[in-house]
Structure formats: structure tokens, C-alpha cells
Amino acid sequence: MSPLEVWLDERVVGTCVIETRPGFQYASLTFTYDPAWLSDTQAFPFSPDLPLVRGPLTPAPHRSTFLAFDDAAPDRWGRRLLEADMRRAAKQRAERFGSPSEIDLLLAVSDDTRQGALRFRRDGQFLAPRHTRAGVGDLARLAAAADRFADTGEVDEGVQELIGVGSSPGGAQPKAWIQDHEGAMHLAKFPRTSDIGDISAWEMTVVRLQERAGIQVQPSTTIRLGPDRSIFLTRRFDRDGARRIPFMSFRTAFQTSEYEHPDYATLAARVASISGRPDADAAELFSRAAMVAMVNNIDDHMRNHGLLHRGSRGWQLAPSFDVNPSRRGASDTPLTPEDDPADRDIRLLLERCDAFRLTREHAVERLRAVDAAVSHWREDAVASGVEPEALDFMAPAFDGPNRAIAAGLTTRRPTTLPPARTAQKTTTPNPPPAVVAAPSSGDVWVRPHARRGRLVEGHFRRRRNR
Hints:
Layout: E1 4-8, E2 11-19, E3 28-33, H1 35-38, E4 56-57, H2 67-70, H3 76-92, H4 102-108, E5 118-122, E6 125-127, H5 139-152, H6 157-166, E7 175-179, E8 185-189, H7 199-212, E9 220-226, E10 229-235, E11 239-240, E12 243-244, E13 247-249, H8 250-253, H9 264-274, H10 278-294, E14 306-309, E15 315-317, H11 347-351, H12 360-374, H13 377-383, H14 391-398, H15 401-407, H16 420-423, E16 444-446, E17 449-451, E18 454-456, E19 459-461
Antiparallel strand pairs: 1-2, 1-5, 2-3, 3-4, 5-6, 7-8, 8-10, 9-10, 11-12, 13-14, 14-15, 16-19, 17-18
């Protein structure tokens, strides 16, 4: 089999070979950077497991592909579509169907709609060569096809069209990439028959609230299908006309597993360490953390955050996406190391404001801005297509205790930690920066700081006049 060329938008950046390594049962990819890419001063690694070095690179022992390729591969919805189509094709050939490998699924995604800027080419042809394109006028038909596939799992002619435009978006909700009348590409998210209420309208509501709070979001809208059913349509952030913009999820950037959920304070520090605009991105993540707490977004896992590579400006936070209110349930992602994600408390963000590169005063301003934005949730929900009689049903998502906490915030730093569950954490080696004096000893808390170019962790210092 001929080597697989790896492209970044319109430029070849390396080659892959599919091979079985000694001692391994399954095939995996071996990647080698193109010398011209390595010698380019603007070159950058696509993920932590693909450092800019000469010679072949192999995935971690438990993997068959690289982290960067995960963001270009299908997620749950796309996998279901592709596997069903492969099963149908095997049946037509009177062959036994075998479960596809991660490499098979990666290369089966349509090149036109693949997420991010990575592309794969073999023998002069980009993979996969599906040429199906859909426009706004096709949305109702695609939504009906998504309903049929969700109900039956069978691939008919309409579902085959959906495969070409819907196999790359991540997540479990039915989706498709479509183009508007000007050729710009958008992500369409379809409702499911099992949905309670118009979830597209509620997602649009939170987009409006984020705009009010100054959080980066993409232009979005909804298209009505019927009572309590609409399509959420948002412009793709990994496209600028025909140009593809490199994308890296937090899960890839920080090498987390599916079951790891770093807190937002830790994520802010990690983002700042690789961002081309560390102060702005860390502060932006503070506002997003406050928003997910105030609308009870419980699906803020590491694939639902990401970074875009902006050329000479480096990696920067991608616009916020996939933020949905939930009237009940809890997230797995804490606000800070001390937080209980089942009972989020935005005061903990203030205690860790240094991690977000904010002063307490600026942190309070941001919390107040988010609270002020969320206070408009009812009017924004109606403007987004939510029926007025459905507002009270979703009120628990927006009118939780953190709204009341935000109303009582002051810029003065307290000398004790507010909630009792947080105080239990002061036994750790590095207590939160809000603690300025040890209650029992009077020792003074020294915040984390730099000394002679090295980071000094936070610690208690004994008073000299004792």
C-alpha cells in the first residue's frame, strides 16, 4: 500500500505508513514530518505526541493513531453513520462485516467537511472523496433522514447523503455540515425525537447570553421545523472561506483521557502556557467557567473546548461552543481543585483568580457581567424560539444559587474561605490564595510568585514579631 500523505490545508506536512509494530496485534500509523515543514520557521507540532523532530514517530503503545488525528476523526454520531454504511456495503458485496479500526474510520470521513485543517491523500486523491454537499434548503430533508437513521440504524438514499455531510462532527447528537448561500460552512444540529423541549432554541439562548457577557461565540441562528423542534445552525470556526484553520481540542492539547476532568483553574494555567495571548485566553476561560456554572451546563468535557492555530499568533482559544442549559444533573468538570462539580460555587473562582491572570477586582467585574447577561435569559429564550409556557420548566438551570452569590460579591478579599466544604481543603500543601492568615497561628499566606526566574509555590510564612 502506498504511503499516506498528511496535509495541513493546502500544504503537505508529512507522510504516514500503516504497519503492525513488533509485539502489537493491531496496525497503527507511523508518521514522519516532511523536511520542508521542519525547516519552516512557522512550523508547529499538531499535538503533544507529534514533536517537531526528524525521523518516524509512533503513537503511544495503547493507541493506533496520534492525538491530533482524533480531532479529525468521527465521534459517536459520525461513527454510527460510517459503520452502518460499511455494514451495508459489505452486505452488498456478500462479505462478512468486520468492525472498522480507528484508522479505517479516520480515513472514511469526507475530506470536504473534515474538522480542522488536517487532510489525508493517497495516490493523488484526498480521503475520503465524498462530494456530497448540502445547503440551507436541504436541512429539513437531512433532519428527516437523521430521524430515520436514529430510529432504524439503516442506511437509505437520504441517509447516504447525510453520511457525506455528517460524518465528521463530534458528539452524539445528529449533525451535518452545510453551506449557506454565500458558500460559508455551518454546523447544523438536528433535534432528536427523544428530546424534551426545543433544545436547539435553548442552545441559541445561551449563545445570546454569552454574547451579552462578552464571551467569544460564532454567529448562530435556529430554523424552525415544527412545535418544539428546530435546527441549531452555527458558523464553523475552523474555516475562513476556503481556508482550513488548525484545531486542537483540550483533550488533545492536554493529553487527557475520556475520564479525566481537569478543573477550570488548572485549565487556565495550561492554556496560558501554550497560548499566543495568555492573559486574554486565561481571563476568557474565567468568564466561560462562570457561565457554565450559571446556566448549569453539564456537558463541558474536554472535547467541548478547543484551540485554533492563528499562524504567527500561535494557538488561541476557539470560540465557545456546545454550551447547553440543564435543569438538573451535574457536570464532571470542577471550577477549581476545591470545587464539587455537583454543587458549583463561583466564589471559588475568585479564590483562584490568579490562575486566570485576573485581579480580584477584575474577576468580580467578570462575574457580575456574566450574572447581568444571564438575568436576560427569559427574554433571550423567547427571542430564540422557546415557547413562553416552557420558561418555568427550565428556570432551575438559570436561577440557581450562583446568581444570588454573584449579586452579593464585593471586591474586598475575605480572610476566611466562604463555604465549609472549601475549608476542608486547607490541609493541602498549597491552600487557595484567598487565605491570607492561618486562623490558629496567625502565619501569613504568601501567594505563588516568581523568584530568580523560578516559580515559588504558595506557602505560609511565620510572622517575624511573634
